[in-house]
Design goal:
The protein contains 17 helices and 14 strands. The protein is α/β, with parallel strands linked by helices and 385 residues long.
Length: 385
């Protein structure tokens, strides 16, 4: 595909990422669980709603600002936690952080990151931290203490991963072998890797990861990357962990990965400052509800007792408008920003965020809304078919 400047939407960046990455790496980023029905439905859910614009309003520049978990953002978005970002491009999480800071939004760092949280915090971005309790509570307590010292603004406790989803693309491609220690097992990837010299050069210059520097096991050191799947299953997160983390952390906490009113109310009752309506990007339970479809139920259940965020399927600024109109305060951009990183590193993330922000502002003006605070169900109607 041509130069980065000719990417006019996220789909263009996806094609650029596909061309640049070996198949095994691209499919990790692009794929979902099992038949990938939920993955596709996350995107299709936005098509089930039409806009109801009001014309005649003079809006030179809509107010896109919002406050999320105590942080003022220039527009209602945060970059979502993406594991293995270092495999996409050597700029990794630091590149995402710098791009998010320039765009005026926040970034959420994945636990499954190859970059120290202190180094990402040093980019100047308003940084949040996603938390799994891999390695047990002792390792988690140390990570939380480091996050507090580094100025992390809040924690996102991911609760929807009692076991890893079956991502069949990864199984077919042999992602575990690529990430493993056996050099002979990697030989099968040589033809595809050599066909992508840009990614190979990037990999040799640092776009790889073998350990998780933000999961330090007492007496052992950073967790090896190949142990992630088994560690997740051994360290299932329950509601009792919310109270434990609240006792360790002096700051806001979001519970990520909820799709029902009952779970949302429970999170609010336990003192969560925010809940994230999410099916993990369609990468866990195939057949789960699309995030946008579950959003009204969750937003109605918490009734202002905590903030509501959502992710899944967001590819355009118009999607953000629909999410806000259905009850979200802000959204998390996962693949939307990750395709940019994979396509062209930090500059690609810049381009992805600029595209989505411009979409958002334009859609607001075409709707006749001067501020995101005006958005509600009055601006939407459900499609009849």
């Amino acid at each position: 595909m041509g130069s980065l400047s000719r990417a006019v939407n996220i789909a263009d960046l996806r094609l650029m990422a596909r061309a640049r990455l070996p198949r095994v790496v691209f499919d990790y980023l692009d794929g979902g669980a099992e038949d990938e029905r939920t993955l596709r439905d996350n995107v299709r859910a936005f098509r089930r709603w039409n806009f109801r614009p009001r014309y005649g309003a003079k809006i030179p520049a809509p107010d896109l600002g919002v406050t999320v978990m105590g942080q003022t953002l220039g527009w209602p978005a945060m970059t979502a936690p993406i594991g293995y970002s270092g495999l996409m491009h050597r700029d990794g999480e630091r590149g995402v952080g710098r791009a998010a800071a320039r765009a005026g939004i926040a970034s959420i760092l994945s636990t499954i990151s190859g970059t120290r949280l202190e180094d990402v915090a040093a980019t100047g971005v308003k940084l949040f931290m996603q938390i799994y309790l891999m390695g047990g509570r002792e390792a988690g307590e140390a990570t939380i203490a480091r996050a507090q010292a580094a100025g992390v603004k809040g924690l996102f406790l991911t609760i929807d991963t009692p076991v890893g989803g079956v991502r069949e693309r990864d199984l077919r491609n042999g992602l575990a072998q690529l990430l493993g220690r056996d050099p002979f097992a990697k030989a099968r990837y040589l033809p595809d890797i050599l066909a992508h010299p840009g990614w190979l050069a990037d990999y040799l210059m640092g776009a790889r990861m073998s350990h998780l520097p933000n999961v330090v096991i007492p007496g052992q050191g950073p967790m090896p990357l190949i142990e992630v799947a088994s560690a997740l299953q051994r360290s299932q997160v329950g509601w009792d962990d919310v109270s434990w983390i609240r006792a360790q952390w002096k700051g806001p906490i979001a519970i990520k990965g909820l799709l029902t009113a009952d779970d949302a109310r429970r999170a609010a009752d336990l003192g969560a400052d925010a809940v994230v309506v999410s099916n993990h990007g369609g990468r866990q339970l195939d057949g789960a509800a699309a995030g946008l479809d579950a959003l009204p139920e969750v937003a109605g259940a918490v009734g202002g007792h905590c903030e509501v965020l959502m992710d899944g399927g967001i590819r355009r600024g118009a999607d953000i408008v629909k999410a806000l109109a259905l009850g979200a305060r802000a959204v998390l951009l996962g693949r939307g920003s990750a395709y940019g990183l994979a396509a062209a590193g930090e500059k690609g993330v810049d381009r992805a965020l600029a595209i989505v922000q411009a979409d958002l502002a334009r859609t607001m003006m075409l709707l006749g809304c001067a501020s995101v605070a005006e958005l509600g169900r009055a601006q939407l109607e459900r499609r009849l078919r």
